[in-house]
Specification:
about 450 residues, 14 helices, about 10% strand, alpha/beta, 12 strands
Amino acid sequence: MSPDQAVFFAREAPFFQAFAQQFSLDPKVIYLMAGQKGSIPNSVRQRYRDGLDQIARDPFPVHLEPTAETRARIAKGYGAQVDEIAISRNTTDALSQILMGIEWQRGDEILVSPMEHPAALATVLRLSARFGVKIVQWGVPVHRAATADEVVAAVKKRLNPGVTRVLFFSSPLWPNGQRMPEQRIAKLAQETGAISVADGAHYGGMIDPKLNETGVDFWAIAGHKWQCGPGGTGILYVRNHPNAANPTPLPRFHLIRTSARDIPFDGSRPEGFDIGAALSRYGFEESADWRALGDVCTLWDEVGRARIEAWTITLANYLRERLAAAFGDEALLQPTADPALKSAIVAFSPFPDVKQRQDAEFNQTFRKRLLEEYGIRISGGGVGPEGLTRAPDPQAAAFPEGTVPNRNPQSLAPAPFGYVMRANACVWNSVAQMDQFVEAAQELALKMTTQ
């Protein structure tokens, strides 16, 4: 542990140790998987339960609190105006609305990395088939010394001004937790006339979000992962005004799911149009869920989103250092030099052998035994040949099952890397738990490679 880390943990650990009591996680399990689903804090869950009870007694009211009030509470912490925030069902739901609502022309291109989440890739493949859009991939620099400059250059290399209609990326990327330089990528899109769309499934609740400062046109954010809201909730951001980070005209956007009738039907957005309100009108949503999402966002604001980001990422940096000391620098499967590319997701492999790293069943056994024998839950894996490049494309064979199907940033040749283990440094975790996890991983890896 570095001196700076020691000072930081001495100052912040007592607060987060107390905050961890808000979460009713199984005390027998070290839970390192907020990226799968977070735990609803006790204070929020009690009011959530009260809301469900209230609805059970009187199901008639549509909302427990006005939708505009909930959206305003979310907008405050996410650095947006209330008319730019809608409540969605989850990240996939928001991405489907965004990507299918853009005004596509046959021959347009969508620029996307091969490392996107399967649910997002499914939407990209559908829109390509429906609208005749060409999918163009860019290779992500993922080596440990990679920099934000390299990432921006890799994106720029594949942008086709006037033809690239949408530049779509995740931040952080789900397979290896690599954060993207959102502002710089959004600026590239603006300079080339493209629309920027970001998958922020792992952004909200981990990163201090200032959405209007990113310059991104559309964000899809999970409410139930790092933000720790109820399952089936998400946040959809639509830039609804020119701003300092993105002064370009608003792109046409068609609302594909809304019960609102007093809206433009040509994709335009006249002055004063509350697109967030229109996007939040769809049937009879569960209003207790929505209010709970607003409550957990308010709780995060009270703790301080910058404080949460500092805690989780500093804890992740400590874990990265411990894993490198235990398994070697090559065990880390993400950039570690440039702070701009770091998140609270730690991607690694405890196995030095290439065959072991690419054996999905072997790695899944490691995760299973880590839980059963040591009480530690992590996630892992990639989409392999079920990503953007799939059979009958002959290049699909270059991406083994369970691996991350990246491409070389320069040549675009297949450049997969092995089965990835992902450990999340969450708000409820501690330094002692990171130490316990590394020791367990060392012991189990030794067992599995010497048996």
